[in-house]
Amino acid sequence: MTTMSAAAPQVAHERRRARLKTRLNLAGAGFVTPFLIGFALLVIAPVLYSLYLSLFRTQLIGGTSFVGLENYTQAFTDPKFWSGALRVLVFLVVQVPIMLVLALIAALAVDSGRLYGRSFFRLAIFLPYAVPGVVAVLMWGFMYSDRMGLTGYVNDLFGVQLITPYTRQWILTAIGNIVTWEYVGYNMLIFYSGLRSVSTELYEAAAIDGAGQMRTIFSIKLPALRGSIVVATIFSIIGSFQLFNEPNILKTIAPTIVTTNFTPNMYAYNLSFVGQQVNYAATMAIIMGVVTAVIAYVVQLRGSRQEF
Amino acid sequence: MSAATPRLARKQFTPLRPKKSVGLTVVMLLFVVYSLIPLAWLVISSTKTQDALLNSFGLWFSGKFAFFDNIVWALTYEDGIFVRWLLNTLIYVVVGAGLATILATLAGYGLAKYDFPGRKVVFGVILGAIAVPGTALAVPTFLMFSKLGLTNTMWAVILPSAISPFGLYLIWVYATDAVPTELLEAARVDGAGELRTFLTISLRLLAPGVVTVSLFAIVATWNNYFLPLIMLNDPKLYPLTIGLQKWNAEAVGIGAQPVFTLVITGALLTIVPIVIAFLFLQRYWQTGLTAGGVKQ
Amino acid sequence: MKTNIARALAAGALAALLGGTLVACSGGDTDAAGGGKSDAAALDAALKKGGTIEYWTWTPQAKDQIAEFEKEYPKVKVNLTDTGGAGDSNTKLQNAISAGKGIPDVVQVEYQSVGQFQLPGYLTDLTQYGFADLKSKYTASTWANVTQNGGIWGLPQDSGPMALFYNKDVFEKYDLTVPTTWDQYIADAKKLHEADPTKWLVNDTGDAGLATSLMWQAGGKPFKINGQKVTINTDDAGVKKYSDMWSQLIDQGLVGNISGWSDEWYKALGDGTIATVTLGAWMPGILTSGAPDGAGKWAVAPMPTYDGGEAVTAENGGSTEVVPKGASNPVLGAAFLRWLNSNEKSIKVFMDDGGFPATVADLHSDDFLNYKSDYFGGQQINKVLAAAADSVISGWQYLPWQAYANTIYTDDVGPAFQDKSDLYAGIQKWLNDNVKYGKEQGFTVNG
After folding, report:
1. Residues of B in contact with C267 (CB under 8 A)
2. Which of B233, C95, C180, C424 has a CA between 20 and 30 Å from the CA of residue C121?
3. A128 Cβ contact partners less than 8 Å away, ≥ 6 residues apart
4. Would you call A83 an interface residue with chain C, using a CB distance cutoff of 8 Å?
5. CATH ID of A73-305, from 3.40.50.2300, 3.30.1490.270, 1.10.3720.10, 3.40.50.1220
6. B chain contacts of residue A283, beta-carbon cutoff 8 Å
7. What is the pTM assigned to this prediction?
């Protein structure tokens, strides 16, 4: 990255360069070290500790004992864990593309310059991102309720049960809607920033070729956004696998639908803090971490290789 | 990094730009309505008494205009604990997000501009950490902290938020382009120390990136829920998010006191400062993000 | 010693003045001769010496009770931490215990969670402080809740004998009779919902607390705890009885899909959407604060029974304070606890703000029984509720991991409520899940 410009090949100069190199190494390490210390203590250590914990079992009666990989075999055959994992996978496959496409459309529209009051749009769509997740769920939770929220009024208006967020068929959609609302603006901004940095010469060339708007979008803008799309996708995937706040808060309203193992994260939380099964919860956290990392890695690989 | 020039250039040379479209604007207005309806609901609901809240249409005013009563109530309920939560949140944000920004900036800059041994390994590990779910770390972090006696202290919230791998990544990307290596070399020739160069020259060039990172760190800390939820016992240490959820939970169980109005008014008060922060720092984070988006 | 006698005399006189039963007090004195006295004296000495204690609770009256306490014992400072609710409180206590740091001196625990903390040995046995002398003060069912495995682990704070709370207006409008049996209740539920499909006699979304209380009322004893040996009877007759009754409501679509304690629930209690609730005697406080619109409409009647005949009821909710091991000031903590849940002033503060007591004397005092509730249109509700307290079936035991069992209850029976599938099958699954969990946690379970 930092190629030093070649200088005159004199011995003294070489020596000075070597000394400089050492100094620079030290300086570079000095800049990075504070972060690394924190990183080691607050990220690496908990990961290692999780691994350690996952090899033991602590019982209310009988204390702690080493169980090897038993927690892992248990997790791999635990239907409660896999039903939650499957649910977040479905969520991911459906919600993430919808949210990202919406964000992309919004970013393209804002970037197109064809909107009246462009900065208003940009800001208004982004605003929900500033709302804490808890607050967002509390708000939507109120609005969803059939007898006093907005859905009740909509249903009364049409005279049928048109919107029923708290049913098994719709709960995931209802959660997806909250998540989309929270993050679509954030993703729009990432895409928009990507679009802003597209070199103007490309547009000029396209204009000279007589390319229409759609062609410009597909042949210039989207390819230029590839990096941003990969980043946004990875973050959305990580977010989906971590799904917790939304279902956990909605659980108080719809307990029969949002089970304690609705998402792997909720399952781990309930196991460790209500069920006192910390070791098993740590095991699940590790499995989910590995799955997430693998999927994120695959997306990154595909994203950087394939053209859109 | 002046944003004005290219925009001007685009206007002149792109024939695709000129016409404003009413159709597109209307379609996008629907989008905006979707984004703003819950916020409108929140604002309107915060003007209602609990009775009206439970018994009236959510998107229009009803009954007594209780907005100011609600705010006073929220600020004084349970001996004014909301103010305490607000101050706590500010401390978490200033210290936590502040540390996160400083550490990420130093490290991102170091990784971008110095070719020291082991750099690639360090970068790979940190990048990998972005993919580790934060909540996967929460339980072991809690157990570690409880062994160290750090649970139920402010540090339990501050320390974990001080490390931001994503922030480091953003600064690294940003610094690569924004701080010309030639400039650093020139400074070296002049005999300036590395830290001094960083403080006097590089930091200024990095400013938009730093603001972006700090803003994301602020939002992350302001919205932090899971970590304080498990780390803190004492309501006097709660940040706003946990405090609001506590009020919400007061509707449950024997001796329940449903205070939905307070939850709503409190939620509104929680949002306002962060929205203001965003509006004020708009110019910076947009530039910063642009750079983050280019490179990948 | 002299002061102790003086104090005992004074306390006796005070109790007599307040209408308490002298029998209870003198009985206590004779018991104490066995040697509990010097232990109780240790508490008195601690109170006199003073100090600071940490008290965790979610009781709304706690602040006023502490103020009263500190007035009486100015040298003692009580630091109050409001834990917000039972669920969070259990988690916090468990966390503090596993951290071994920041353990409170006194903490509120639901009756159903006493075992969870007692069995692993996290609680201080209060027998050593002469608490056995206080036994006669409390109702048999609440005392049973704080004593198990040969120790006394707390003092009852409140109780929740169950009763039927119903909306008179709705009952009159739809010509419903106040049910005395569950069969009548089901008939009412049908009549009401058919007359107006937006109205429900009952709401339930798989609430474990309600279900276990109704099993209790049916004479169910699915759980037997003997130290670390737990028996889970999956064929319990009472459980079946409950399931048969409740599934009639579910199968006919008569159960409103509104979760207890949600915003919708409060609204529905206020506007007549839900016409009855069968919950603990603490319910009047909830109605008053949460459903002000229902004022004047609600009334209370004895809980419907399974077989008619004699009134039979169960407990629903309620909690005790305990002294965890590892507390920094356990003696003073125990002294505070004793004051908190047995001192007349403290109990008065508790009751004045809507708390339902666990103390026999207070439950039978004239003031209490003759109280006319404005919210209930002048009904003397405590007569019904106190009678309920006297007719609680004995013998019910909770699991040592009841809090966890309750959270997974809804998982297992949820399908029954959602799809009208077999409720009994859901309960069976739940019982079996508990057998599995108990074994995983090292208990001897012979389900």
Report:
1. 54-55
2. B233
3. A136, A181, A182, A184, A185, B35, B38, B39
4. no
5. 1.10.3720.10
6. none
7. 0.87
